[in-house]
UniProtKB/TrEMBL annotation, chain A:
Matching PANTHER family: SARCOSINE DEHYDROGENASE-RELATED
Pfam families xref list: DAO
Domain FAD dependent oxidoreductase: 13-355
InterPro entries: FAD-dep_OxRdtase, FAD/NAD-bd_sf
Any one GO molecular function term: oxidoreductase activity
Alphabetical keyword list: Oxidoreductase
SUPFAM superfamilies with a match to the protein in the record: FAD-linked reductases, C-terminal domain (SSF54373), FAD/NAD(P)-binding domain (SSF51905)
Protein name, per record: FAD-binding oxidoreductase
Automatic annotation (TrEMBL), chain B:
Originating species: Cupriavidus campinensis
One of the record's GO molecular function terms: oxidoreductase activity
SUPFAM superfamilies: 2Fe-2S ferredoxin-like
Designated name of the protein: (2Fe-2S)-binding protein
Domain of life: Bacteria
Record keywords: Oxidoreductase
Record's keyword annotation contains Oxidoreductase: yes
Length: 380, 102
């Protein structure tokens, strides 16, 4: 698209900056309540967590240190069936949601004791809505996971955890855009944001300017830079994750684990490495992959004969403390920022809960916990 | 710049190797990959895909595309282009996704 043609576009009611899972979920949910929507995206070469993630719809590991995040996540897991059904009906794409419960496998007494203490602390925090969870011994866990390795001596289980196919999810959102008039603008990375006296925003991109009455910053790891353009100081701390992919097999694993899942089409994903590696996402490293593979084989020894076919690394989108950020700019009213690590899990609440708040022009007090004010506490 | 591939002429005189493909005896040449032997015997499709069950056969012939998966001596999902034929080898069509014994 040329600069001239973009600049001829009308003033949109809302421009969402970022076409990954977070921006897409918000744009998808805005459609019911605002007239015209644009989604501005970068090109194929971008730090795109939406194409590198593990695809869990996951509750049990969320909210240690911020109880409200656990409750927010629980709410999204409850809304997920409705999101999946809506996408299927509208686009014909089945995003392969399965919410049959999930496990955190634990190996040895040390891991069990440490995790039980962690979960008990998490559940006792203010703001956490209590939910069902259980510690399972090896035999109880093995009843959910046929062939579970003897090294897995226990596991934490909740009925709320599950999986989805994240690539199909992204495709379903974009398919919905193309049939419902959402203007998707690739190669429109933002270089400048100016709010005019009347309140409209002018977004400068290499392919022309885009104007909108409201904007949503959902630019993943670029949200630190984007936030500065509208007076929001958001410290980002990317975290690299590496994933090992095993060949497709017949379905074996119906209960996903935080480190091991089988996709709807049969592939296996082995993951959950966490490294501080700056913005280096174009490398995988043998020690990490070997550790992932070793743990997967100890978890499910039958995988010893299943071949690894791919590996990749991607950067988790994380604010400095790992919790989501939702805020309307105080200096640029009408500019909202949305940042989180769990664009898959939170997709349902972003579409059905957050988007209507943005459309209404105000985030309610229940979201104040998630503002960047927590990073800027006055200490004297 | 261009030369005849003498190696191919020479290989025609190589020792014969006998394998079975889905129960049918097939005579191949020593040094053939399983995929080359299948092509030479007119077998174009050697598997059915894991997701849709569509028929597929060798494509890249260099270990990248995974379209030539077959069962070799009972082992599933072997790349036919990366395996050399051996006397007595059993090659079978790969029907869909392989199984994993739990």
């Amino acid at each position: 698209m040329t600069a001239a043609s973009t600049s001829r576009l009308p003033v949109f009611d809302v421009a969402v900056i970022g076409g990954g899972l977070v921006g897409s979920a918000v744009a998808y949910g805005l459609r019911g309540s605002v007239g015209t929507i644009a989604v501005l995206d970068e090109g194929d070469i971008a730090l795109r967590a939406s194409r590198g993630n593990f695809g869990l719809v996951w509750l049990q590991s969320k909210g240690y240190g911020m109880g409200a995040y656990s409750r927010w996540t629980l709410n999204s897991t409850r809304l997920w069936p409705k999101l999946a059904a809506g996408l299927l009906q509208e686009t014909g794409i089945d995003v392969a949601l399965e919410q049959k419960g999930g496990l955190t496998p634990l190996m040895g007494d040390y891991e069990i004791e440490a995790r039980l203490a962690w979960v008990n602390t998490l559940m006792s925090q203010p703001g956490v809505e209590p939910y069902e969870w259980k510690f399972l011994d090896h035999h109880q866990a093995a009843s959910l996971v046929p062939g579970l390795g003897p090294d897995v001596t226990g596991a934490i289980w909740t009925p709320h955890d599950g999986i989805v196919n994240p690539l199909k999810l992204l495709r379903a959102f974009h398919t919905a855009f193309s049939t419902s008039g959402v203007e998707y603008l690739p190669h429109h990375g933002i270089t400048d944001i100016v709010q005019q006296p009347g309140g409209d925003f002018v977004l400068t991109t290499p392919n022309g300017t885009v104007r909108a009455r409201k904007i949503v910053l959902a630019g993943g790891l670029r949200n630190g830079d984007l936030g500065r353009m509208v007076g929001i100081d958001l410290p980002m701390a990317p975290q690299r994750g590496q994933i090992l992919v095993l060949e497709r097999t017949r379905r074996l694993l119906d209960t996903p684990m935080v480190t091991l899942r089988q996709n709807d089409e049969g592939s296996w994903l082995v993951g959950d490495s966490q490294e501080e590696a700056g913005y280096a996402e174009q490398v995988t490293t043998l020690p990490i992959l070997a550790t992932l593979a070793d743990r997967a084989v100890r978890t499910l020894p039958a995988l010893r004969d299943v071949r690894a076919v791919r590996a990749w690394s991607a950067l988790r989108v994380r604010a400095k403390d790992g919790f989501p950020v939702y805020e309307q700019s105080a200096t640029h009213p009408g500019a909202f920022i949305v940042t989180c690590h769990s664009g898959v899990t939170l997709a349902a609440t972003h579409a059905m809960h957050l988007a209507p708040m943005i459309a209404a022009g105000e985030l309610p007090p229940e979201l104040a916990t998630f503002s960047t004010r927590r990073f800027h506490v006055q200490t004297h | 710049m261009f030369r005849r591939i003498d190696a191919a002429v020479l290989q025609a005189t190589d020792r014969k190797v006998r394998v079975t493909v889905d129960g049918t005896a097939l005579e191949c040449r020593e040094g053939d990959s399983v995929a080359a032997a299948l092509f030479a015997a007119g077998v174009l499709a050697c598997r059915d895909t894991a997701v849709s069950g569509a028929a597929r056969g060798p494509y890249c012939m260099m270990g990248i595309c995974y379209d030539c998966l077959v069962r070799i001596d009972g082992r599933p999902n072997q790349q036919a282009c990366m395996a050399r034929v051996r006397d007595g080898m059993t090659v079978e069509r790969q029907h869909g996704a392989r199984e994993v014994a739990a």
